[in-house]
Amino acid sequence: MKYPVTASHAAIRAAAAGATHRVLAAMLAAALPFAALPFATLHATAHAAAKTEPSAARALQIRADRIILQDVVQAGKRLLAVGERGIVLLSDDAGRSWQPRFTATNRTLSALAMGDEQRGVAVGHGGTVLTTADGGASWQTVAVEAAGKDALLGVLHAGAQRYVAWGAFGLYLETDDGGATWRRKQPLGPDFDRHISQVIVAGNGINNSGGGSGSGGSVHTHVWLLVGESGTLARSADAGATWEAVKSPYPGSYFGALATADGALLAFGMRGNIYRSTDHGANWTRIESGTSLALMRGSRLDDGRLVLVGNAGLLAVSSDNGTTFSLQKTARGKGLAQLVQTSGGLVAVGEAGAETVSLKGKP
Q: Which residues contact 33 (CB under 8 A, 6 or more apart)?
């Protein structure tokens, strides 16, 4: 099935693709020791070296601090990170060292989600979908016609073998077989064409018996929250089967969302905007962030603190469930895409690859 592409969308895609390719070409020269080689040659050389001589494969090691990374997750004791040129990085020592895995694509990988220590899904630009069944050691390409060539920006493991993926121009996909086959859905109707930035599953909330406020009656479901471009906010009370659009308190774009320990929801994005909801997404209150830098993603730590990451190495930290935030910067000061807590501390990924992060102050 083909999906219509308007002239304006085509122009946006062409401009974005050109800018992305220029940025990646410049970064690639700094990131790879063999940057003079075409990347396809590097891929082929790495695969051949891995099969014939382990030491030769190690010689092609990619520096984890000189490659753009878009996402990082933990599966058991292993960290998995994805980024430019289809590269996956693995760490079994809490981010102190990383081993590269070359996939069959050279498109940027935007995100990944693991269902357990072995099985997971990675998604990326050009409708790229990859699956792994061995903890990220190898990856298989899945052809998803419904995705077309639009960028996939995120993926969520939704229990058992179900995953949800989303991206540009309202692209929203689901699978119930671990990523082998996918179907396209229209969460906010056939005319919805805004970029979807993130989908999260929060705690128990919306009361299916009516009202949608979560107060009173039998609360027996999880709230799903969807955020995106141009003030897009939506929530679901039935695990993403249907979605209800929510009026946004501002027209700008949201890049991320997070659930707090006390059941509140945060939506954040452009120019440091943070909004908080205490009624499962029905109403939102602006939180003063103290910054105009974009906030991209966030994590809730074991001690309950929230850490939002953003441009220029920004760390926005809250110890009161997102009511207030204090600002810090990483030592490198480069844009951050995500952060994960490990047994050895905090590991962030972004423009400067992977780096360990220390927070100032006490919880």
A: 60, 61, 62, 63
Establish how many alpha carbons lie within 13 A of residue 250's alpha carbon, considering only the half-sphere containing its beta carbon. Answer: 17
Terminal C-alpha separation, the chain? 51
Report how far residue 100's alpha carbon sits from residue 42's, in angstroms, rounded to the nearest whole number.
12
Chain segment 262-319, per-residue pLDDT in tens: 999 999 999 999 999 999 999 999 999 999 999 999 999 999 999 999 999 999 999 9
CA distance 152 to 19: 17
> What is the DSSP code string of 247-300?
--SSSS-EEEEEE-TTS-EEEEEGGG-EEEESSTTSS-EEE--S--S-EEEEEE
Place 173 in a pLDDT band, splitting at 50, 70 and 90.
Answer: very high
Give the separation between CA 110 and CA 156, rounded to whole angstroms.
Answer: 12
- Of residues 257, 306, 5, 38, the one with CA closest to residue 127: 5
Q: Which amino acid is at 259?
A: A
Q: What burial class does residue 301 get, using C-beta atoms within 10 Å of its C-beta: 0-12 exposed, 13-18 middle, 19+ buried?
A: middle
Q: What is the pLDDT of residue 41?
A: 39
Token pair belonging to 143: 């052809």
- Which secondary-structure segment (H or E) carries 11? helix 7-31
